[in-house]
Amino acid sequence: MFKKHILAGLILAAALMPTLADDATTAKPHGLKADDKSPAIPLEEKENVLPPWNSFNRWSFQGGVAFITESTIDEILVGDGERATGEDEGEIYLLQASYKLAAFEPHIGKYRPQIDLELPLVLGIVNEHERDDLWLQYNAGLTVRWKSFPWNKWLYTNFETGIGLTYSQHVIATERVRHPDRERSHLEIYWPVQLMFALPHHRQHQLALFLHHHSGGGLFHTGGANSLGLGYRYVPGER
């Protein structure tokens, strides 16, 4: 129980610390009067700006917890996912920092969607209830974030997915239980799927619903594990 309290504190600290910088970036420049107002840009017309390569606004930060399931991707997609129980029950506490590599607004007919290319670095702290210790999981990849949805002026939404690699200190219990006779690799394919929501005037503070997937992909081995989670994402470059 004590370990869980420590982990919860780490997640909360990671989520709240960047908001201190948010107050500083929203302060008015020196010499600007309090009643001066710049023209407001309609929410639906905001440009997808790429900050300088060394700007803090290129980064986003995220913390969350994912509950390990005993379900396949197909079962989750049809709403039949179930949380793991018994010896493979547990959670993965995830801390993520992502760097914005590029921003695009391609022409698709008369439509110009906003798309970001990002490099996520994710540290997972795995808590399997049948084990006495915690162990680490390292994830990195390349992701695409789709930021244009027709309802964004009412509920800002973006969707992220991509591909990468996961290295785990131990083979997760769900894989050992479901495939006891197979050789398992500590190196796997990483496939993140994330859906973000925010208030339109506070886009920097986002609620994250996500699938944390890692598997052999037929390359390292067959089979994998899926965890469903909830988290908070802070994006200093979004307003």
Keywords:
about 240 residues; mainly beta; Porin; 8 strands; about 15% helix
Walk me through this protein's architecture.
The chain has 239 residues and is mainly beta. The protein has one domain (2-20, 59-234): Porin. The protein contains 3 helices and 8 strands. Strands 1-2-3-4-5-6-7-8 form an 8-stranded antiparallel barrel. The longest helix is centred in the first third of the chain and has 24 residues, at 2-25. The model is unreliable at 1-6 and 12-44 (pLDDT under 50).
Mean pLDDT: 84
Structural class category:
mainly beta
Radius of gyration: 20 Å
The level 1 CATH classification is Mainly Beta
- Tell me the overall shape: elongated
CATH-defined fold name: Porin
- Helical amount: 10-25%
Distance between the termini: 38 Å
Q: Order of helices and strands, N to C? A: HEHEEEEHEEE
Count of helical stretches: 3
Short characterization:
By secondary structure, this protein is mostly beta strands.
Blueprint (SSEs and pairs):
Layout: H1 2-25, E1 59-68, H2 73-77, E2 90-104, E3 115-128, E4 135-146, E5 156-168, H3 173-178, E6 187-198, E7 205-215, E8 224-234
Antiparallel strand pairs: 1-2, 1-8, 2-3, 3-4, 4-5, 5-6, 6-7, 7-8
